[in-house]
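Here is an idea for our session: we take a single protein and study its fold together. To get us started, please write out a protein record for me. Start from the sequence, derive the backbone structure tokens from it, and show both lines together. Go ahead whenever you are ready, and we will take it from there:
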Amino acid sequence: MMSKTVAREVISADSAPVAPRYFAHAVFRTPNYQAMIDWYGKVLNAHVVAGGPMLTFMSFDEEHHRLAFINQPKLKPADGSQAGVEHLAYGLGDLAELLNTYARLKSCDIAPVWCVNHGLTISMYFQDPDGNRVELQVDNFDTVEELQGWFKGAEFAENPIGHSYDPEELLRLYAAGTPRADLIRIGFDA
């Protein structure tokens, strides 16, 4: 028995371009297989969805997987001289989530390698066992319009990277009840 045909739109090279709906996942080839799984489990609060001795899938949200690790024990470590991805960034909900994550990771002996207020975000960068960088960030602006205005301003023009800050100082200021408007200026008003 034949299935009934379905009317579909015409596929054409002239159709409007389509942007991806979301970033689905990142896959890592690694000589440090279990260490990478453990590290991302701690840093992103990710859990193993499926895995075995050669391949593991992990997720930290409703997506079936956000990360995959391929066990390749004979790979040479990256030395930083190759072209490639500089870092992957993950957004957290607010400053409390970032600081709680910082404190939790510190208790696991995972420390940020760089803390920077980019102006648009307050960020902490961590380095995984293979040397890849992971940024955990929170937005400093409540609206896209505010952010776009900042991009057009003097602070961004003069310093598009931002200013380093001490995470312990940010934690102290947060715990002391410093207003958010002052906290998101850390490093800029020094």
